[in-house]
Amino acid sequence: MNCYDAIDVMGDALEGSLAPEARPGFEAHIAECGACRNYMDQLRIARETLGRLPRSPETSPRRSDLITAFRRETRVEE
Amino acid sequence: MHAKPWGTGEAFVARLRSGDETAFALLVDGLHSRLLALASTFTRSRSLSEDIVQETWLAVIRGLGAFEGRSSLVTWIFSILVRRARTMAAREARRAPPVAISGDPEESVEWEPGRGRYGLWDKAPVPWGLEDPAALYQSHEALAVVLATLSGMPDAQRQVLLLRDVEDVPAPDVCNILELSETNLRVLLHRGRARIRRALDRYVRDGVAPPFANGLDGAIAGPETRYGS
Questions:
Q1: CB < 8 Å to B193, chain A
Q2: A19 touches chain B (CB under 8 A)
Q3: Deepest of A73, B61, B213, B224, by most Cβ within 10 A of its Cβ?
Q4: ipTM value of the model?
Q5: Residues B46, B48, B52, B58, CA torsion sign
Q6: Which of A7, A38, A78 comes nearest B126 by C-beta?
Q7: Burial class of residue B84 (count of CB atoms within 10 Å of its CB; 0-12, 13-18, 19+)
Q8: Residue A31 lies in domain
Q9: Chain B: residue nearest A62 by CA?
Q10: Which residues contact B186 (CB under 8 A, 6 or more apart)?
């Protein structure tokens, strides 16, 4: 596997869904190629940072209308 | 990836169906800003985004009785939102001419499978030398870099990153929600992650950070007001 092939499957590798037949070639390439190793490490950090973005505590400005609509709908169901 | 303030299983759906208002309020409070973030990838109008989310909630209320639980509750809600957003944003687009998006020429070359690193880096990536990568997640500046990059990237890339990496929706569900093939999803995810990596690379090595960023839901906020821990 060369850098081009490695990058093609890097997203799968990041998500732990790399095809079993691609694994030996990918792992061998990553072991010997510093650039791809750095790239993969940094993509992983990018992905993990996305998963840790702060949440806005904002709720719906029409929250009470929604709860009223919910009450009406579920009452009809009964 | 995130602790959910509501349950995710059948028990929670059963509470909703039985008319449990506390459960419904938890769902609204927990999901509203996430829905707004996703809606804002379909339109530049904040008020239209809010309308899309409101319509989504009303559709959720009406559809609860027919929800079969074949996907998770959250995936089902995201699917409803995307269908509404496409219809409502298309209606808007017929009224208003499209807004030109300022393109970063450096980012005009996008990765294609089989073309390897072409378009991704000029020089081979060098280590960031972070003693503790986790420190980056706690850095207001780094988070602002990521948010700014996210809000500036093409909508299709923003949609897949929001669902897959921010919300941790399983890949097959993301394909269903956005009606994408597996290959398209992989390509868009890689392009989006590559942009975030490139922005973090500039930040870590050169200290380049935006003074402020759009929040996930599109609201503009200074780091000190939005990212305070």
A1: 11, 14, 43, 46-47, 50
A2: no
A3: B213
A4: 0.90
A5: positive
A6: A38
A7: buried
A8: 3-74
A9: B54
A10: A11, A12, B113
pLDDT over 90 at B56, yes or no: yes
Q: Which of residues 97-116 of B touch A (CB under 8 A)?
A: 111, 113-116
Total number of domains in chain A: 1
pLDDT digits (tens, 9 = 90+) for B124-136: 888 888 878 788 8
pLDDT digits (tens, 9 = 90+) for B188-218: 999 999 999 999 998 998 877 665 555 666 5
Q: What count of CB pairs under 8 Å joins A to B?
A: 156
Could you give the CA distance from residue B14 to residue B149 in angstroms, rounded to a whole number? Answer: 39
Is A76 at the interface with chain B, CB within 8 A? no
Could you read off the pLDDT of B157-175 as tens digits, one per residue?
999 999 999 999 999 999 9
**Pick from B24, B116, B189: which is nearest to A4 by CB?**
B116
Q: Closest partner residue to B127 among A38, A43, A49, by Cβ? A: A38
Task: Record the tokens describing residue B196, joined without a space.
Answer: 């975030």
How far apart are alpha carbons B209 and A63 in whole angstroms?
36
Rounded to 5°, angle at Cα B128 from B125 and B129: 135
